[in-house]
Amino acid sequence: MPFDRVAALAVSVAVPVLALPVLAVALSAPAAAQNAADGERQYRARCVSCHSTEAGQNRVGPHLADIVGRTAGSVEGARYSPAMKDSGIVWDAEQLDAYLANPRQAVPGTSMPVGVPNADQRAQIIDYLRTLSGSAR
What we know:
Layout: H1 3-46, H2 82-85, H3 93-101, H4 103-106, H5 119-131
Pfam family, one: Cytochrom_C
Protein name: Cytochrome c
GO molecular function: electron transfer activity; heme binding; metal ion binding
């Protein structure tokens, strides 16, 4: 094979390999946005009857605006079980995942009866809730 063909082949292989980290970062933002969009659909199907996304608008459960980083049981005017008030939880992705998977196991005595057993759906909902939080933690 002539040298110029070898050099062209080397460049054609090296450039895509070097571009992979950049491509991964570029693709992760749209993927996260899609996950959050799917999460909003999951939220509307599963959560909206009991929770609002507007600060100060509590329903059966507390509003979920700025939930990431918030201490459980701390929304003024919301009704909480004693178990939730005393849980000491500060909501992050890990705590939300455990709670949404099985609320009554995560916080025995909680008043939230409904869980989200599907891990992908939980991840989508959590990504959506992150978009409602000031620092998108």
